Amino acid sequence: MRAIAAIARKDLRLLFRDKGDVFFTFVFPVIMAVLFSFVFGGGGGGGGMIDLAVVRESDSTLARGLADDLAKDPSFTTTSFETREAAADAVRAGKATAAVILPKSLDAGLEGLFSGQGIAIDVVVDPSRRAEAGLIQGKLNELTFRQFPKLFSNGTEMKRAYSAARDSIANTRGLSPTQKLLGAGMITAAESFSSSIGGEPTADTGAASASDGAFFAPIAVKVEELAPRAGRPRAAFDVTFPQGIVWGLAGCFGAFAASLVTERSRGTLDRLRLAPITAFHLITGKALACLVTGLFVQALVFTVAIVFFGARIAQPAMLVVAAFAAAFAFAGLAMALAAFCRTEAEANGAGRGAILILALIGGGTVPLFFMPPFLRTLSYGSPFRWAVAAIEGPFWRDTPLSEQVVPLVVLIAIGFLGWIVGARALWRPFAR
Amino acid sequence: MLALRDIRRRFGHTIAVDGLTLEVRAGEVFGLLGPNGAGKSTTIAIATGLLLPDSGSVDLLGMGSPSDPKVRMHLGLAPQEITLYAELTARENLRFFADLYGVADARARVDELLALVELDARAHDRVSTFSGGMKRRLNLAAALVHDPRLVLLDEPTAGVDPQSRNRILELVRRLAGEGKTVVYTTHYMEEAAKICDRVGVVDHGRLLDVGTVAELVARHGGQSAVTVERDGVEQRILTADPVAEVARQFTFVDGGADGGTGPVTGVRIERPDLETVFLALTGRSLRE
C-alpha cells in the first residue's frame, strides 16, 4: 500500500509541476465548457435532424396522417413509442429531442375545429432544447394543415365536425339570432366546399395555409418540459459542462499516458520495476493518481458550473458514482494508451490525436444531437459518449437509475480493460 | 554473490551477449571493461532481471533469479541513463524510491544518502537544475536507498567533469569499504585500474578474460618498454624488469649500434596496462 501511495503521490506532484498538463487538465475544460455554452447558447437548435419520439394514441385519419407526415418530414427522425411514458423516457435519456403525443382526444379537437377549441397535441421536450420545441410547434401546425384536405374529403369525419360546430353556435349564449344564422350559413357553405374538393395539397400550399390560418389556431400544442429541477431552468451550460468534464478527463488521461511513456523511454520505469513491487502496485499507483486527478477535475468543473452559472445537480449521490466511473475509465485508458505508445512522440502525437477523434465522435465537442445518424452510431465506440451519458444523467437529465446502469457498466469495463492491458504491457520484459 | 552462467542474448540479428560466464565474489569491486557496444549494459540488465537471457542462468546470492522480487530486493542499480524525475527535488526523488522499497525511517536514510553524495545543500532543489555530475551522484544515491548488498553501476562516470568523477570513484571505494559488492561497468581503463579488485574484459558480448589488473597485465600485457636517450638518439628496449634495465643502461656509455654514444640524457619507462591487455586480447584499442 505504501508503494502504491508513493507512486500516486509522485505522479500527482509531477502533474502539478508541468504547466502544460495543468492547463490541459484543469483550465482547458472550464474554458471549453464556457465557450461551448455560448456557442450553443439558448439550448442549441440549428442544423441537423431532430429526433422525435411519436406516440399515436388515436387511430383517427388525422392522427395517422400526422404521424406519417412527421415521419416523412426531412426535419425529423421519428421513432414510434407505445406509451407517452416510454417516449418521455427516451427524451430524458437523450435519445429523442422531444416527444409528440397524438392523444385520443385528437378527434374531439377536430369536432371543435370551427368552434375555437383547436386540435390538442402534447409535446414533451428536453428542457435544454427549447429552441427545437418552437420549431416542432411550427412544424406541427404546418403538418396539421396538410391534413385538412384529407379531412374535408372524409365525409364522416367532417360531418361530425360540422355538426359539432352547428351545435356549438346554436348553444352559445350572447349571439343574436342574426349572428347565429350567419354562423350556420358559413358552416353550410364550408360543408358544401369540402364535399367539392379532394386530393393532396402541395407542401407550399400547406405552408401557406399554416401561416394564413394561424389566426384561428387549428391546433393547440401543449408543451411540457421534463421533470424540472428544483428552482433552476435548464440551459446550454447543462450540456456543455459535462463536455468540459470529459475534456478534463481527456487532458489528465493524456498527461498520465505521456508520463508513463516518458518513464519507459527514459529508463525510470526500469528502476521502478527493480523495486520489490508487482505490476499491480505500479499500475494501481499510477491509475490511482489519474483517478484522483480525474475526480478533482470534475469537482472543479462542477464547482464552476454551480457557483458561476447557477447549475443544480439533480442526483448528487449518483453524480459522485458517475464521476468515479468516468475517472476510472479514463485512468484505465491512460494505462492502455501508454502500453501502445513506445515513445513520447507517439504519446503526444498519435495518442492525443486518438483522444481528439474519440472526443469528436463521442460528443466531446459537438453535442451528439447535432450529429448525423451515422456519427451517432459511431459514438457508441467512444468512451467520451459513455462518460457524457453517465454524467448528464444524474447532473441534469434526472434519468432513472435503470437508465444510468449501462453507461456506468461500460465505463467501469473500459477502466478494467485498460488497466489489464497496461499492466501486461508494462511488465512484459519480466515475463519474456 | 552474483553468478552468470553461459548467458546468451540476441536482439534480432545482433548478438549482444555470447555465452558469457562470470562470477562476482562477495565484497569485491568487479569491473566490466569494454568499449561501447561490447554488451556490458545488456549483461547488467540480465544480471538485474530486467532482461531475460535467451539461454543461460543468473543466480544472485545463491537465492536464484533476480526476476523474483525477493531476490531483486538485495540489488541496487544505477543505470547509465539518469533515471530520476527531473521535476522532483533531490529529496523527493530519494524519498520516493525509499517508499517504494519500504525503507524504515525513510527520512533519516534520505538525509544520510544526501550527505553521502554531498548533495545535502541542494536537497530541496529540482533535479532539472543540477549539473551532470550532481545528477550522476544522485542517480547513484537512488541505487543505495534500500541498502542493497550488491550494487551495479553502469558507466556511472559517463559525461561528468573530473571533479565529480573523482567523487564518484571515492564513493565506490567507500561502498566497498562498507562490505558491499560492486559491479562497475566502464570503458575508462584508468577507472577500472584504480578502483576494481578484479576486471573482466568484454568485447562482442564475450568475456575474454578475468583477473586482477596485475594478473591480466602479466598474462596479456607483455614486456615493459624502456626508452633510453643518448646524444639525441632514442633506443627502445623491451624487458621484463624495466628498473634493472634502466640501472644497467647507466653503467655504460656506448649504446651500441642502435643507441648512440655518450651519457644517458633521458629515460622513459612504459609499463603494460589494461589498454595493452585489451589490445592484446582483441587486436584493437579500447578507445577505437
What is the CA-CA span between the terminal residues of chain A? 27 Å
Quaternary structure: heterodimer
Biggest sheet record of chain A? 5 strands, mixed
Strand content of chain B: 25-35%
Overview of the structural elements:
The complex is a heterodimer of chains A (432) and B (288). With 432 residues, chain A is of the alpha/beta class. Chain A has two domains: 2-40 and 235-431, no CATH class; 50-225, abc type-2 transporter like fold, CATH 3.40.1710. Chain A is 69% helix and 7% strand. Chain A has a five-stranded mixed sheet, sandwiched between helices. In chain A, strand 1 (50-56), helix 3 (61-72) and strand 2 (76-81) form a beta-alpha-beta unit. The longest helix of chain A is centred in the middle third of the chain and has 31 residues, at 236-266. Chain A is elongated and about 105 Å long. Chain B is an alpha/beta fold and 288 residues long. Chain B has two domains: 2-218, 3-Layer(aba) Sandwich (Rossmann fold); 223-271. Chain B is 33% helix and 28% strand. Chain B has helices at 40-48, 69-72, 90-100, 106-116, 132-144, 162-177, 189-195, 213-220, 242-249, 274-282, and strands at residues 2-11, 14-24, 29-33, 55-60, 75-78, 150-154, 181-186, 198-203, 206-211, 224-230, 233-239, 264-270. Chain B has a six-stranded mixed sheet, with helices on both faces. The A-B interface holds A 2-3, 5-7, 9-10, 13-14, 17-18, 266-268, 270-278, 429-430, 432 and B 45, 48-52, 67, 69-70, 72-73, 75, 77, 79, 81, 83-85, 87-88, 92, 96-97, 99-102, 142.
Short description:
The complex is a heterodimer of chains A (432) and B (288). Chain A is of the alpha/beta class and 432 residues long.
